[in-house]
Task: inverse folding
């Protein structure tokens, strides 16, 4: 690649040593004297690179190692092994120039002071990041405009709704105009409208400032809307790195056929449908949905059209969150063999 | 350096704004300050009803010591304790992450973040008591005594801060240790009296284990002209030692910090 990547991970690994003890009073008493510990491999040799301006979705089920990886990249954790570079720096050295170039937004944690207006907290970040006042005013007003915050920033933060607060949190995290954004579940707990607004903002921000974004989210809609490329980790290891569409192709083994019958067909009971594919509709209205193996989709569609009085028929890819769910549901060994096969 | 002072100023302004929301705290601090003082004066009156000298301290000298105890309490409760409690909360909740991703020395940031402005009342009360005690005692302290007092008081402040920081830093390994700060508070109570009145073992503990002696007794001794050059040098060394130890311990703690939940 001719463009120097902004983020590079090379075989990054993190092992936590955690105390373990059996339940019960005796075990608890024993652990006061000698703590037994166990090693948990949170991230097990992950490598990838991210080019400037890319928005990458970083996916994995709970406990897959996403947040641990993000924390290492943001300089909060020392890795157990391997190396990483962000903006040319080793993150955990916490060089101040590096820290001025990044930001970390966590949907489940907030940094704004609770009892005072967000505007006052913004001023604190200006001072910490040493943003020149003129530039600060410009950036601040731009962010207020983009996120539609003008009526919110003057109220004590505790009076804001969750979504409003999150928008203020995001603005506070961007006042120093970072070029690398680590967004950890930025839309957590927000309603659909607010999720959409935050998504639109992230896209606009990245375009306007050429910022690189690494985003984790449990809402596939976030990922579909923002990320062309996704990186999937599972059990601490890299499972997939590529286009979102390629992910669907690779991991989805089925398609969904939706059809409507022009007239009632009495002999088509559950067993009869099963000959075509798996019924996945709720059976309440006239729409019938069948899950069929991808490879046989064309043949089954042909048979359906030939044998039944069909008034309407569509074939769809399996929805992305269903695909992801299937991927995450696989136990570790299955994934390993799948890796080996492909 | 000027940037840093401006930064601390911004933090304090914000903390004051935050605190101004809770006007009731002002009346609480005021009431508590006067009640505590009344109790302290009462116990002094009881003791000096029986004797006119306690381990070499006269009544007015002891009253000045009570005033200094108040000044130091005010400092602790205004600056040190709120910041350290906030640090413990942040470690527990994982919000310390935001501090550690800021391009500024994290120890500086955690140390100036909270500021319970109303507790400055204790400092004012303490100063009033010291001035009153000195006026009643008759001879005004010499310039040298005042300088020695101010210097030892400042060093005592550094020592107390370093000690609290070390206590709070333990949270990096044990996550939930809010109770640990009580260690200081209960031992600090002993500082109402000159450490000289305690048996040797306790005196040693109050000097080096929980540095109450440096916080109150040494500045009080300096004010009444009963501190040797060696004791002054010792205080300076202790301040340096505590500060450096706290700094090193803090750095190890930050390295060990993993953030609450992965």
Result:
């Amino acid at each position: 690649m001719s463009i120097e990547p902004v983020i590079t991970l090379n075989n990054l690994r993190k092992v936590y040593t955690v105390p373990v003890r059996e339940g019960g009073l005796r075990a608890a008493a024993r652990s006061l004297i000698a703590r037994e510990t166990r090693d948990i491999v949170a991230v097990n040799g992950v490598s990838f690179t991210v080019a400037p301006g890319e928005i990458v979705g970083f996916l994995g089920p709970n406990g897959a190692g996403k947040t641990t990886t993000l924390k290492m990249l943001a300089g909060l954790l020392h890795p157990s092994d391997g190396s990483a570079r962000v903006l040319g720096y080793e993150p955990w050295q916490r060089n101040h120039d590096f820290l001025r170039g990044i930001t970390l937004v966590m949907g489940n944690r907030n940094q704004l002071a609770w009892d005072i207006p967000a505007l006052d907290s913004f001023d604190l970040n200006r001072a910490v990041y040493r943003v020149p006042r003129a530039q600060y005013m410009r950036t601040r007003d731009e962010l207020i405009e983009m996120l539609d915050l003008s009526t919110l920033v003057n109220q004590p933060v505790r009076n804001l709704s969750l979504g409003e607060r999150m928008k203020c949190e995001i603005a506070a995290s961007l006042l120093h105009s970072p070029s690398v954004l680590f967004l950890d579940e930025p839309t957590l707990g927000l309603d659909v409208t607010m999720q959409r607004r935050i998504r639109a903002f992230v896209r606009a921000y990245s375009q306007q400032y050429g910022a690189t974004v690494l985003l984790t989210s449990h809402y596939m809609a976030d990922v579909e809307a923002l990320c062309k490329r996704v990186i999937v980790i599972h059990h601490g290891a890299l499972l997939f790195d590529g286009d979102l569409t390629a992910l669907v192709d690779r991991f989805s083994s089925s398609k969904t056929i939706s059809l409507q019958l022009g007239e009632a067909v009495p002999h088509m009971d559950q067993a009869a449908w099963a000959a075509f594919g798996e019924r996945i509709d709720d059976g309440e209205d006239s729409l019938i949905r069948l899950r069929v193996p991808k490879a046989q989709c064309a043949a089954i569609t042909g048979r359906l059209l030939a044998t039944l009085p069909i008034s309407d028929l569509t074939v769809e890819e399996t929805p992305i969150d269903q695909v992801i769910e299937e991927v995450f549901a696989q136990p570790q060994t299955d994934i390993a063999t799948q890796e080996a096969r492909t | 350096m000027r940037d840093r002072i401006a930064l601390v100023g911004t933090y304090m302004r914000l903390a004051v704004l935050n605190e101004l929301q809770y006007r009731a705290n002002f009346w609480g601090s005021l009431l508590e300050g006067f009640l505590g003082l009344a109790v302290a004066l009462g116990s002094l009156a009881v003791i000096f009803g029986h004797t006119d000298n306690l381990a070499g301290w006269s009544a007015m000298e002891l009253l000045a010591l009570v005033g200094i105890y108040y000044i130091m309490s005010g400092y602790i409760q205004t600056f040190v304790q709120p910041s350290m409690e906030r640090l413990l909360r942040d470690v527990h909740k994982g919000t310390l992450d935001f501090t550690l991703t800021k391009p500024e020395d994290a120890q500086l940031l955690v140390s100036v973040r909270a500021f319970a402005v109303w507790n400055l009342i204790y400092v004012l009360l303490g100063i009033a008591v010291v001035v009153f005690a000195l006026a009643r005692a008759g001879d005004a302290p010499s310039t040298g005594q005042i300088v020695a007092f101010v210097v030892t008081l400042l060093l005592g402040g550094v020592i107390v801060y370093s000690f609290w920081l070390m206590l709070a830093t333990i949270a990096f390994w044990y996550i939930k240790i809010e109770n640990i700060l009580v260690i200081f508070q209960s031992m600090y109570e002993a500082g109402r009296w000159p450490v000289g009145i305690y048996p040797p073992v306790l005196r040693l503990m109050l000097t080096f284990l929980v540095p109450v002696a440096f916080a109150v007794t040494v500045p009080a001794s300096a004010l009444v002209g009963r501190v040797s050059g060696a004791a002054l040098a010792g205080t300076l060394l202790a301040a340096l030692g505590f500060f450096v130890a706290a700094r090193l311990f803090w750095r190890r703690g930050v390295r060990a910090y993993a953030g609450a939940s992965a």
In short: Chain B has a mean pLDDT of 88.
